[in-house]
Amino acid sequence: MASAARPPALSVAMSVYNGERFLAAAIESVLAQSFGDFEFLILDDGSSDATASILRSYERVDARVKPIVRENRGLVASLNELIARAEAPIIARMDADDICRPVRFERQLAFLASYPDHGVVGSWSEDMGEHGEPIFRTGADHPITHEEVLATIAEGQQVICHPAAMYRRDVVRAVGGYHAAFRHCEDYDLWLRLASVTKLGNIPERLLRYRRYSGQVSARHSTEQQFGTAVAQLAWEERQAGRPDPTAKLQRLPAIDDLDALFGRSGVSRQVREQVALGLLYSAQAMRDEGFDLLLRHLRDGGRRDGMWRTVVRLLRFGEPLRAMRLAATLAVSPGASS
């Protein structure tokens, strides 16, 4: 009797939805890795463009490419399905619009082999624009050590670039994978839950080119992303204090006004509203959707007003004169607003 085939050392997990524009470049950057013992699971989450045919064309020329084509179920369900299907003990995440540097997998696997107490390793990233052009970075790089990760969580900042992450499959399965309630910030919630059971770190090399453009999920859902991030951090604080996590069994997060009841104390809703509102001031998309209404509610409740007149000017630059007038009127009827 022939023995069963040896599983690959690594499973690469990519979910894609209508990603034909950048998909080939992302796939080719994975197939060109210096470390080649992997299966490449690519889940087409109900695309209506040429995504499926692109995947089939790569499957024909490289047996490592394993397409999964089905109806749309959303990113969280897709990521959890990829984790369930992964044959390797280690999973590398990848997005369909980014590009891996050729030594990414080699470097991250070497790190996990050297540090068995770490369940997750990411890397620094290099920003690029819609057409692959370099973008100058202004923010801080992700933390390197686990201790720095914990300090960064406490500050409410991002800890690992999701498409640059590599993690141990069974550690992620043990905490229940990605949680549906944290749509559009499912990775941040996962990192915070994993930080309680394993160590996380980042390699200080730019092993991923991260594409920034107006059509990406983080740009289109910035308000929901900021809200989920704020709630995920509150849940982390509850776990750190030894209290039950009230979000653990949720399929959807409640409205902001219901957070006091969820967390069992007053002031939570107002705290989150302020955090989200102030975090969206520079997002043109958020100021065109429900983020603007959150901002007005924050101000009417007596919230912080630092820089709000500058936000009026910013709204004019965003091409939103009516909203600029509404914000100015809100500031004018409440004395004490600062510039």
Automatic annotation (TrEMBL):
Provide the GO MF annotations for this entry: glycosyltransferase activity
Q: Which InterPro entries match?
A: Glyco_trans_2-like, Glycosyltransf_2, Nucleotide-diphossugar_trans
> What range(s) does the Glycosyltransferase 2-like domain occupy?
11-175
Pfam families per UniProt: Glycos_transf_2 (PF00535)
Q: Which residues form a coiled coil?
A: none
Q: What is this protein called?
A: Glycosyltransferase 2-like domain-containing protein
Query: Among its keywords, does the record have Protein biosynthesis?
Result: no
Alphabetically ordered keywords of this record: Glycosyltransferase, Transferase
For this chain, the family text in UniProt reads: Belongs to the glycosyltransferase 2 family.
Return the Gene3D superfamilies for the record: Spore Coat Polysaccharide Biosynthesis Protein SpsA, Chain A
